[in-house]
Write a structure and sequence with these properties.
Blueprint: E1 3-8, H1 27-43, E2 52-57, H2 66-69, E3 79-84, H3 91-97, E4 101-107, H4 111-117, H5 123-135, E5 140-147, H6 154-167, E6 171-176, H7 184-191, H8 204-220, E7 224-227, E8 230-232, H9 239-245, E9 250-253, E10 258-260, E11 264-267, H10 272-276, E12 282-285, H11 290-295, H12 306-311, H13 313-321, E13 325-328, E14 331-334, H14 336-339, H15 342-351
Parallel strand pairs: 1-2, 1-9, 2-3, 3-4, 4-5, 5-6
Antiparallel strand pairs: 6-8, 7-8, 10-11, 11-12, 13-14
Helix pairs in contact: 6-8
């Protein structure tokens, strides 16, 4: 079955680590954006009925999503997720709208780390939110964490993991901070500056060690890694996000939203302003190599056909011999060692 992604890129503040096309924008732009979003959804010709919906951003929990979700077919959906900033719950409204999964953008449970990045919540806010969500019937909860934030140490990282153990969510996402020019913190690090606590960020090696610590600790909690950045108890894997990695079709609405119909890909204008102004979409043909580029992110790996085993024989042999990949039962998958250099491995399959 196919899925729907809706982009709502508006936030109450822009976090220093964020490299998404989201932020604080004028109220009049937000109103025009809502109108443009509704026009795009209403103009879409539905060739299939979706079974998953994902409302991301930005901070879509700042709005009542009913006006958007009422326009979509397929309700009740198998899985319908909203991304939420801690302290912005609307449990009754979300349930009435058809949502059944909440992804909390926690990033850290340590106050000093949160304040350096522009986050306003506390660990106690998250604890209260999780309790309220469960009391309101939301058992499918994800908590996001980021390794590599300013001031973060092995000790403080374990403090955040202690909170995960205490709250016992069924799904956890763990991302390693990406140093790139698309975030204010990343751009400052690249420039060698000191703003946004750029000099207080952990090294790449320290960040990688934090990630590996999370893998090990989450496993002891029964929260297993099923994709490079995603961990879940059995049965709580994100049905919607699995579509991306398994090359199932999905439609994206809103700025910077991507779509895939099994043959072609297209992307809406990146900025909210350009989207509202009607900037054209960008189209491209799907590439056969994507099977490996996205599928190898899953710990279950991919199943190459006979021609693919032959085509990629050289890099597969090299990575297996080096302990970065393994085969078995007709599958090709990354090892724990391979996960840590996955981007380099993926590039080999794009150029082989």
């Amino acid at each position: 079955m196919a899925g729907i992604y809706i982009s709502y890129p508006f936030c109450s503040q822009k976090c220093t680590y964020c490299n998404f096309a989201s932020g604080v924008f004028p109220k009049d732009l937000e109103a025009r954006y809502r109108e443009a979003l509704l026009r795009e959804i209403r103009a879409h010709v539905w060739e299939w009925t979706p079974d998953t919906v994902y409302l991301g951003g930005g901070t879509p929990s700042l709005i009542d999503p009913t006006f958007l979700l009422n326009e979509l077919p397929g309700k009740p959906w198998l899985e319908a997720t909203i991304e939420a900033a801690p302290g912005t719950l609307n449990i009754e409204g979300w349930r009435a709208a058809g949502l059944n999964r909440v992804s909390l953008g926690v990033q850290s449970f340590v106050t000093a780390e949160l304040r350096r990045t522009g986050r306003r919540h506390t660990a106690e806010t998250v604890e209260h939110d999780v309790a309220m969500l469960r009391a309101g019937g939301f058992d499918n909860i994800n908590i996001d964490l980021i390794a590599g934030l300013p001031l973060q140490t092995a000790t403080s990282w374990n403090e955040s993991l202690d909170w995960i153990e205490r709250l016992n969510p069924p799904h956890v996402s763990v991302y390693m901070f990406e140093v790139d020019e698309d975030s204010t913190l990343g751009a400052e690090i690249i420039l060698g500056g000191k703003r946004y606590s750029a000099t207080d960020t952990p090294s790449e090696d320290a960040t990688a060690e934090m990630y590996e610590t999370a893998v090990a600790r989450l496993k002891t909690m029964g929260i297993e890694r099923y994709e490079i950045s995603n961990f879940a108890r059995p049965g709580f894997e994100s049905v919607h996000n699995l579509k991306y990695w398994q090359l199932a079709p999905y439609i994206g609405f809103g700025s910077d939203a991507h779509s895939f119909d099994g043959h072609k890909r297209w992307q809406n204008a990146e900025s909210a302003q350009a989207y509202v102004e009607g900037a054209p979409r960008e189209y491209s043909d799907a590439n056969a190599d994507e099977k490996f580029f996205v599928g190898l992110r899953l710990m279950g790996g991919v199943r190459p056909d006979a021609a693919e085993w032959q085509r990629y024989e050289a890099p597969i042999r090299r990575f297996v011999d080096g302990g970065f990949m393994e085969t078995g039962g007709g599958l090709l998958r990354l090892t724990a060692r391979g996960v840590m250099v996955s981007n380099d491995i993926f590039q080999e399959f794009l150029t082989a």
